[in-house]
Amino acid sequence: VLKQNSVWLLYTDPRAEPADFSATQATEGVSYGVGCVGKKAWCVYGNDLMFMAQDGVRSLQRMEAATGQFNLSAPISRAVQPYIDRINPAYASGIVATKYLEFALFAIPLDNSTVNNAVLCWNGRLGKWMGVWQGWTPTSWELTRFNAQPRLVFGDSAGLVNRWKDLDATDIDPTYQDNGKGYASGLWTRSMDFGDLEAPKSGYNAKVRFNAGNANLTFTAVGNDAALNTWAKQIAPSGDILGTDVLPFLLASQQPGVLPFS
Question: Which of the chain's ends, N or C, has fewer CB atoms near its CB within 10 Å?
Fold first, then answer.
């Protein structure tokens, strides 16, 4: 049982029906001071119960070595903590979560928003946070099974029902549009240190290769937390790959200085 500031285990005898819902049941406290922020801010993932707590997403896990015992994890959302910190606490009770395929999705209100305007995506197959999707405003999730095909849909704050097009054709542009409109995606890579953290190095170009896609791409080289150069081009398919090109980056920096040693 998830309450706002606590988590409990409730024990019932399936052979005996309580006289009414006010009858006293055997309980055991799992946590005090940590609970679920909203009535729908939880989902079941495998054998675990994931929910949005006051300090981030936590998991209630069945302990393998102790039958009937459960363990409350520390926040598993530290990788997306900057977004957790931006949740509007006054409207956190409206957070909704669901499990679909290998994903656990948490719709949250960021900053001053009074409705959910971002979705945090957890990939349980990889054990990683995939990132955040913005522009959606889910107020409820549902899994439909028309024609025996499970499809994820959600109702939004505008009163519309939206369907995730994961079963649509992957080789046509409309599949990658939201309500007929395109949207931008961003990816930040790791630091390119070329395997050497000590010696100075300057990157003058980068070769990129893509195996799928049909969109304008913009690359930005960043050095010392500042944009150094940008490059954009429409890449057309070529043979078994989408295309290759060379980015005219010039990664130049005056700092930090060279520190020689023997």
Answer: C
Element (H, E) at 82: helix 81-84
Q: For residue 49, how many C-alpha atoms fall within 13 Å in the half-sphere facing its CB?
A: 17
Q: How confident is the model at residue 235, as a pLDDT?
A: 66
Number of H helices, E strands in the chain: 1, 17
Comparing CA positions, the residue from 43, 117, 24 lying closest to residue 11 is 24
State pLDDT tens for residues 148-177: 889 999 999 999 999 999 888 888 888 888
Question: Side chain identity at 219, as an amino acid letter?
Answer: F
Identify which of 100, 98, 86 has the alpha carbon closest to the alpha carbon of residue 140: 98
DSSP string, 114-137: SS--EEEEEETTTTEEEEEEES--
Q: Which helix (H) or strand (E) element contains residue 140?
A: strand 138-144
CB 147 within 8 A of CB 130: no
Tell me if 83 sits within 8 A of 110, measured CB to CB: yes
154, two tokens: 């959600």
DSSP state letter for 199:
S
- Kindly state the tokens that stand for 226: 């500042």
Q: Distance between CA atoms of 55 and 61, rounded to whole angstroms?
A: 18
The whole model's pTM is what? 0.74
Q: At CB < 8 A and 24+ separation, what contacts does 239-243 make?
A: 240/211, 241/209, 241/210, 241/211, 242/209, 242/210, 242/211, 242/212, 242/213, 242/214, 243/209, 243/210
Mean pLDDT in residue range 201-208: 65
